[in-house]
Design goal:
Elements: E1 2-15, H1 19-23, E2 29-42, E3 46-50, H2 57-64, E4 72-77, E5 80-81, H3 87-96, E6 97-100, H4 104-107, H5 114-128, H6 137-150, H7 167-179, E7 185-189, H8 197-214, E8 217-221, H9 225-231, E9 234-239, E10 242-248, H10 249-254, H11 259-266, E11 317-318, E12 324-325
The chain binds iron/sulfur cluster.
The site of iron/sulfur cluster has 14 residues, from loops.
């Protein structure tokens, strides 16, 4: 069953270089951060979104939450378009859908105790939904302790401040806060970034356990391919605002088709695949999303570029079994 269906989403930003550009008649510059993206996230599964930094994966996630403004397209959540939700429905959506950011310390008020930080969404929900009756202090405290224990933190943590915790513990606090309202969907944006491997592994296992217990659907945004392979059921590879390959994670790792996916995977030696290949070094920098290349956006770095790649944009085509690829090497005509 589909939980989220995104259709032809475009999220652009507009840059103005200031007074000089106005004086010399330069208009606004358009950053094509997410450019005509369609994908489906199935209920109870994990969808991995990968790509180099600046490819638009975080912007895509933020568009779902309306943290950035999408220009056009549709984001259906349980059948309702998030982009057209009124304030009340949006509020209800934001209880069912939660975020875990990579900078967990930056998300926590250093003057609040961890107990207050975790209790905050519970209190906000009560006020915003104008629920009747008082939320008893003891019931709130019990709920905070339950949430701390659910993420394997000591109940004493409730009275401490964020700076008293390690990076791994701070992520656990972020997870506890995210699950406080029993969400059905969580977007985790680089949730283990900066953690050592063993601490990261405990966070991954914790989130998998919570998914099993609470039937949560994840959007897992990461540049770490090993992690996406481990965590996700389905995945998409993004390049310069577009999806270039998408499908079941096991299919992409065993039968990767797009030259960009091959280069990304080849650069991670620990990732085992059915295709034996040497590391593919991509030349040049990712082009500016203000002036993306014509035709295929990857053509300026693609080792297999052809003449038509400059003039024709390759459509995302089903190679079979829901494995999609946008590359002229895999088009029939
Ligand atoms: Fe490379 Fe052309 Fe395929 Fe783009 S369409 S990935 S440039 S071969």
């Amino acid at each position: 069953m589909d939980l989220i269906q995104i259709d032809h989403l475009k999220t652009y930003f507009y840059q103005n270089k200031g007074v000089l550009s106005k004086l010399f008649g330069e208009g606004l510059k358009t950053v094509h951060a997410v450019d005509d993206v369609s994908l489906t996230i199935k209920k109870g599964r994990t969808f991995g979104l990968v790509g180099e930094s600046g490819c638009g994966k975080s912007t895509l996630g933020q568009s779902i939450f309306r943290l950035v403004k999408a220009q056009s397209g549709e984001i259906l959540f349980q059948g309702q378009d998030v982009l057209k939700m009124n304030p009340k429905t949006l509020m209800e959506f934001r209880q069912k859908a939660q975020l875990i950011f990579q900078d967990q310390y930056g998300c926590m008020n250093p003057r609040m105790t961890v107990g207050q930080i975790i209790a905050e969404p519970l209190l906000m929900k009560k006020n915003l939904m104008r629920e009747k009756g008082k939320l008893e202090k003891s019931a709130l405290f019990d709920e905070v302790i339950r949430l701390l224990q659910a993420v394997n933190l000591d109940p004493d943590s409730a009275t401490k401040f964020p700076n008293e915790f390690s990076g791994g513990q701070a992520r656990r606090i972020g997870v506890a806060r995210a699950i406080a309202l029993n969400p059905v969907f969580i977007m985790a944006d680089e949730p283990t970034s900066g953690l050592d491997i063993s601490t990261a592994a405990t966070i991954l296992n914790l989130m998998q356990d919570l998914q099993d217990e609470m039937d949560i659907t994840y959007l897992w945004v990461s540049h770490n391919l090993n992690q996406v392979k481990y965590m996700s059921d389905d995945m998409a590879v993004m390049y310069l605002g577009k999806i270039v390959e998408m499908g079941k994670t096991k299919d992409i790792f065993s039968e990767m088709a797009h030259p960009y996916t091959k280069a990304l995977i080849s650069a991670v030696p620990q990732v085992s695949t059915n295709q034996q290949q040497e590391t593919i070094f991509l030349e040049g920098e990712i082009p500016s999303p203000i002036h993306p290349p014509s035709g295929c956006r990857f053509r300026t770095r693609c080792p297999q570029v052809m003449k038509r790649c400059k003039t024709h944009e390759p459509p995302l085509t089903d190679l079979g079994g829901g494995h999609y690829c946008a590359c002229h090497l895999h088009q029939n005509n």
